[in-house]
Task: structure prediction
Amino acid sequence: MQAASSAIVVHGGAGAGEELSDGCRCAAEAAAQALARGEQGLAAVIAAVVVLEDDERFNAGTGAALGLDGKTIEMDASVMDSRGTLSAVAALRSVKNPVLVARDVARSPHVLLAGEGAQRYARLMGHAPYDVVPETARRRHWELLEKMGTCEQPMAGVDNIEFARFWNYGGQPGFDAPQGCDTVGAVVRDADGHFAVAGSTGGSAPSLLGRVGDTPLIGCGFYAGPAGAVAATGIGEYIIRNMLAITVYHWIAAGVDLHLALQRGLALVPPDASTGLIAVSKTQAGWLANSSTPFAHIQD
Ligand code: GLY
Result:
């Protein structure tokens, strides 16, 4: 295949705040270093996501959101490239880097492993137990509980009382009635003209136990094919209903300008649901969000 110019785009989660752009920049540089070593796009997106998972300011890996019970952490992650790799994990507990477990699922006969089976598989692949909950995650949890006792709806369009009504953590809800939702992700076009995407999240907050968002669902939070790669960030329930990543991918594959495709994609979700999109195509790279979202971009 002909040598192409490489491109990297990284996001740190819809609504996470542009002040976190330095973390995205470090992640994009990790991806660029992987490409400079001659590694493929898949290794580059994974390198970027590992940096964000290890930065407790982001809702993924070490900084993953606490469940409404203040204890449980369930994480989702996925990887895909235009060479045929596709694998993901959902509702995974007690690992440091879910994106590395997602990558290792590609060695199994399956595409997606969830819950306890995913955790046991992680151990089999050598991922040690990891249950660090940084102070930032605890603070975000308490801020969320405070909001849930008000009229503010941390999950756009969903009445806070729904989380008490369907409470499935055991015990009693720790709020009188019922923050945000973010994810980290990266897309890359490598020097061989192949495309790759990876994503990781601690899930949306608030959410019920066992809830799985868009991040491990192909075509929803992520997609990569011969025409490009797309990753979405935001409230999974809106992203899933619109199969946002593959919808945008199909527009790009049909020749729609990448930036227009991102605009059309964002227009599918309610404007009050923080949402972001990143994409690379054969000739373009871009990002767009309807709320303050950290991004980084490196073009060769
Ligand atoms: N986009 C992350 C989630 O909804 O879980």
Remarks:
- The domain at 7-131+179-299 is CATH 3.60.20.30 (Glutamine Phosphoribosylpyrophosphate, subunit 1, domain 1).
- The longest strand covers residues 75-81.
- Residues 181, 183, 201, 203-204, 213-215, 221, 233-236 surround glycine (CB under 6 Å).
- The CA atoms of residues 91 and 210 lie 6 Å apart.
